[in-house]
Amino acid sequence: MKQTIAVTVLCVTMVLMGAPVRAKTPQSQCAQISQKWADFWNGHDFAPAFDVFTKDVVYEDVPTVMGASGAKEFRAFAQGFFDAFPTTRFELGQSACHGQEGFIEWTWIGEDGRVEDPLAPGFCGTGKPFMVRGVAVIEIKGHRISRNADYWDFATVLRQLLPEGQDCVARLLGFRE
Fold first, then answer.
1. What is the DSSP code (8-state) at residue 168?
2. Contact, 154 vs 62, CB < 8 A?
């Protein structure tokens, strides 16, 4: 009986002592990086960018064929996004990392920005709400994202902008000039 109690106490002690070690597992680091990613985009402020991303980050928004390479381009890309979608937010889903690679699942909830220049970032300027799920495929250096490729369904967003954005949607799809 004494041995059983001693073994139980030892096991409980090891579990409790191991808790801080488990908090630093790769998945925990991945969850922290994912949260920083969401906080950056939700904060609409470029200042903390390099707490999340490396200064030589390569960032791709695959559906819109937009992106950035390096600090200067990333600043312009992020600021353009913040300006075009001032009420946007991202909600996190799952994330996982293996080694220096991983993914972040997210839901983008926003309103179509008011865009005057048709070549400026944004969609149709309808002001309509939209929601789309997506994923960021990431590479990590240290505790920062060095490469980010966002994948989401552009058609899902465009369908939500109709009928007000009908001419714009047709133009974005290449049906009209």
1. H
2. no
Q: CB under 8 Å to 176, separation ≥6 — which residues?
A: 167, 170
Asked if 40 and 136 count as a contact pair (C-beta separation under 8 A), the reply is no
The letter for the amino acid at 22 is R
E strands in the chain: 53-61, 66-69, 89-98, 101-111, 129-141, 144-152
Q: What is the pTM of this model?
A: 0.78
Residue 48: asked if its preceding bond is cis (omega within 30°), the reply is: no
CATH architecture of 48-172: Roll (3.10)
Per residue in 108-151, pLDDT (tens digit) is 999 887 655 555 456 888 878 999 999 999 999 999 999 999 99
